[in-house]
Amino acid sequence: MATQVYARLILAGLLASASAAAAQAGDGVYASAGQIAAMVAKTTDGVATAAVPTGPGTTLLAAHRTADGQVEVHMKLNDELIGRSGHATVLVGGKVEGNKETAPGEWRGGRITGARSYAMGPGDVLWIPAGTPHQTLVPKGGDFGYLAFKFDVK
Which of 75, 113, 125, 139 is a good FRET partner for 89, with 20 to 30 A between their CA atoms? Predict the structure, then answer.
């Protein structure tokens, strides 16, 4: 287990160094599908997330879920999800009861009602506006891998 964590830290460090060097040199930033998959291969409590190397001003997370996520509401960030592997249902909209602010403008937990349901799989794209409740539900025994782009509200 410690070896896997160490290997992932080394990989993340190498990717970050390559990302910074490439961005400064104007050569772009590259991460292979294999590198991204390795970054989120091991889940803890049903989820793994890792920052994917990008250029300045962009936030991109790779995620892998083997269990349902909590209800989330980001007051200042839009989310755009792109399915990579597996399947999930993403609930979007409606009302949330029982959530808690975990950081300024970031709410987690509770229960979502009245949401619209989207079936997500590889290649599917879902835009979630800032301030909109959402939750990722993974079928029992299944998994869902995706990229989450985070965009500031303008």
Answer: 75
Distance between CA atoms of 23 and 65, rounded to whole angstroms? 30
Q: Which two tokens stand for residue 127?
A: 């835009």
Q: What are phi and psi of 48, to 5 degrees?
A: -135, 135
In the chain, the DSSP E strands lie at: 47-51, 59-65, 72-74, 77-86, 88-92, 95-97, 100-103, 106-108, 111-113, 116-120, 125-128, 134-137, 144-152
The sign of the dihedral angle between the CA atoms of 144, 122, 60, 70 is: negative
What predicted TM-score, i.e. pTM, was given to this entire model? 0.80
Separation of alpha carbons 13 and 18, rounded Å: 8
CA distance linking residue 50 with residue 15, whole number of Å: 11
Nearest C-alpha neighbor of 128 from the set 109, 142, 141, 146: 146
pLDDT in tens, 95-127: 999 999 999 999 999 999 999 999 999 999 999
